[in-house]
Specification:
Blueprint (H helix, E strand, L loop, with lengths): L3 H17 L5 H7 L5 H13 L3 E3 L7 E3 L10 H12 L15 E11 L11 E6 L8 E7 L13 E5 L9 E6 L3 E10 L2 E5 L8 E4 L3 E11 L4
Parallel strand pairs: 3-5
Antiparallel strand pairs: 1-2, 3-4, 5-6, 6-11, 7-8, 7-11, 8-9, 9-10
Helix pairs in contact: 1-3, 1-4, 2-3
Length: 229
């Protein structure tokens, strides 16, 4: 079962693809569904993608494909009206497809995280604008990296780690690990029976070994943002 908004969004996307051959931008989807922010659109798209109704085409910021329609899908007046208005506004003499839109969404920015000895990851009210193309399905948040223990994995002090929220991970994945309920760190995770080893990516640092009950996975690394000054 899809929610009413999920039904409305998938119908709107399909109608735009049928009419113009181009998927709508996040701004157009936000307006069509009367949502307050683009992050709401991102959540709907992620949910539809996870359930196999749509997929994002790689290497393009504005490219969605409807894989299948819900069996009980029916046209929605709002989506149909929005699609018709958008199509009517396009010049009939236009022969070239428009440039892809650089859709950006805001994700929560929760303080700093250690790439070294564990430090506290602060919960905050700030947000970070992120190109939607960098994020896959699921809920995401960002943390500012502090330290150099992951430099051999290409993660440097001052980078912003884009993290997909999850409480599980496979061996060898880079995770946000909460240690003893107090401190968070960004490391490779390895599990060995009742022990958990958090491995750095810098020969100058030693692995950190804890009991499995002392470590809680809070997310997996999904991407990085780097600012150059």
């Amino acid at each position: 079962m899809l929610t009413a908004k999920q039904h409305e969004l998938i119908r709107f996307i399909q109608e735009r693809l049928d009419e113009t051959g181009i998927s709508p931008s996040f701004e157009e989807m936000k307006e069509a569904l009367d949502l307050k922010s683009k992050s709401g659109v991102h959540r709907l798209i992620s949910a539809l993608e996870e359930r196999g109704f749509i997929r994002r085409l790689p290497n393009r910021a504005r490219a969605l494909e409807v894989i299948r329609q819900p069996e009980d899908a029916t046209p929605t007046p709002r989506a149909t009206r929005a699609a018709n208005d958008a199509v009517a506004s396009v010049s009939t003499t236009m022969t070239n497809a428009p440039e892809p839109a650089n859709d950006v969404i805001e994700i929560p920015l929760h303080g700093r995280i250690a790439a070294g000895a564990p430090i506290e990851a602060l919960e905050g009210q700030n947000s970070l604008p992120v190109p939607a193309a960098l994020l896959g399905p699921g809920e995401h948040y960002a943390l500012e990296v502090s330290g150099d223990s992951m430099i051999e994995a290409g993660i440097f002090d001052g980078d912003f780690a884009l993290v997909r929220r999850t409480d599980s991970a496979r061996d060898g994945e880079i995770v946000v690990a909460l240690v003893r309920g107090e401190e968070a760190t960004l490391k490779y995770i390895r599990k060995d029976g009742g022990r958990v080893r958090l491995d750095p990516a810098n020969a100058a640092y030693d692995p950190q070994v804890y009991g499995s009950e002392e470590v809680q996975v809070q997310g997996k690394l999904a991407g990085l943002l780097r600012r150059y000054h």
